[in-house]
Amino acid sequence: MDEDYEGDRFSDAIRLLLLIAAVADPLDEAAKATAPENAVAVLRAEGRLQKLDFWLRNPD
């Protein structure tokens, strides 16, 4: 595999993890009942995540 591609995938993964951590909410009791066993947070608004991703990629 191309080394540049691997570096881009790593950067993409780090960026997405940071964005998810920024917009995710802690699980409340209602969400814990329906969430997977190892879940620690819930992402309620994909639009907010997309807006932050755009801003992070294009900060100007």
Can you put this structure into words, describing what you see?
The chain is mostly helical and 60 residues long. The chain has one domain (3-57). The protein is built from three helices and two strands. It has helices at 3-23, 29-34, 46-57; strands at 25-26, 41-42. Strands 1-2 form a two-stranded antiparallel sheet. α1 (3-23) packs across α3 (46-57). It starts with a helix and ends with a helix.
Average residue pLDDT:
84
Q: In percent terms, what proportion of residues is strand? A: 5-15%
Poorly predicted spans: none
Number of strands: 2
Counted by DSSP, the helix tally is 3
Largest sheet: 2 strands, antiparallel
What are its keywords?
60 residues; 2 strands; two-stranded antiparallel ribbon; mainly alpha; 7% strand; 3 helices
What is the structure about, briefly put?
Helix content is 65%, strand content 7%. The chain has 60 residues and is mainly alpha-helical.
